[in-house]
Amino acid sequence: MQIKLTFLGAARSVTGSRYLVEANGSRVLVDCGLCQERECRNRDWGPFPIPPESIDAVLVTHAHLDHVGYLPKLVREGFGGKIYCTEATAEIAKIILMDSAKLMEEDAAFKKKRHEREHRKGPNPELPLYTVNDAENTLPHLTPVDYYKSIEVAPGFSATFYNAGHVLGSSDINVTVRQQNSQRSILFSGDVGYGGRPILTDPTLGIEADYVLVESTYGDRTTPEHTDILTDLEKIINSTEKAGGNIVIPSFALERSQDILFYINKLLLEDRIPHLMVFLDSPMAVSITEIFEKHPELYDEEMRALIKNHTSPFRFMDLKLVRSIEESKAINHIKGTVIIIAGSGMATGGRIKHHLVANISRPESTILFVGYQAVGTLGRLIVDGAEKVRILGEYYPVKARITQLHGLSAHADRNQLLNWLTSLKRAPKHVYVIHGETESAESFAELITEKTGWPATVPNYRQTVVLD
To answer: What pTM did the predictor assign?
Structure first.
């Protein structure tokens, strides 16, 4: 038996997950994400390395853009097969892909106007990577599957999806390739979550595979063990309310916003904070929250108990789910302290910018960041202590209290990743460390070999390995 595995993305980088498995004359692609790092964005614009129509099936681990965001281009260029994923992932991916396509069209239109204003000659180079119509054409290909049930995805290929505990519907995918009287299995970790997070059940442990591809986003670091999210959030809310300001929280629509609602609801139930109005001001986050409510089978015991007691973090009395622009604008006219959760999580766009304009120069308000802030983003500038920042074309002095809430990452850290690996039922033949910057991936590969004796390597972009 000979199986070819090619790393078409997220190899020595964090985004653009795409892995091609070839055997028996069939081709299966695992994940189909956008490259979001500046140095690899050009990969999205060129032709796909193989003809998309030659791919029999696509398997998707979860609905983050760096795992699903390339799908509309793949479909437009000829892929006509099924895209297998869990039901929750399919529902969220529909929202994510339509929003991505809309933003691409808007960005291309803006750049076109700028080129016309600057009297640039020649064809307009700023076409969208794909359009809303391309995204709409992709949605019928999404094919929901159940956890823990083996399904045939191509001749000689079967796949089983396991709960990854990362975001709602996220999966590890075990691909089995059969040939004559033998078979080999390849486990794709997707993004691994960690035990003890709110709302979702813990990642599945004890899977069996011959080869493993494991993510390493946080493969070179550990999460502080004594992070008390509830206590930290309680102090931030109470001190800001006492000062008479607002708590403004830039947050991602998927998972992070729902986690924040969980913690706020818990503080309210324990009477540790005043009953303030809480606004989830993001149409995408509102839609995704509604998908959360449709899938109680994915909840952990604590979340199920809240639902049973009619104390859902998605339905508490003072929570307002905001969709319209008019409602969003009205928030900043409210007197007294409110909590505002809005996208984007790094303050690079979306409604959060308007709330920052209204609050960043108020010493009594708090800007609370709940996720990683990438270099070059507005969020990173604010966190790094900029005295003034440019928002919506104007400069504003930063006088609000700036703080971060740590411990909310949906990614497993170094120790948790190692725990997931060492829970495997038997030693794999080889571990490929992917989905991490080079330093992080190499550090984790060395740790794997040191702790287990297993061969572990960091593949390069477009490298092909033959699995016996």
So the answer is: 0.92
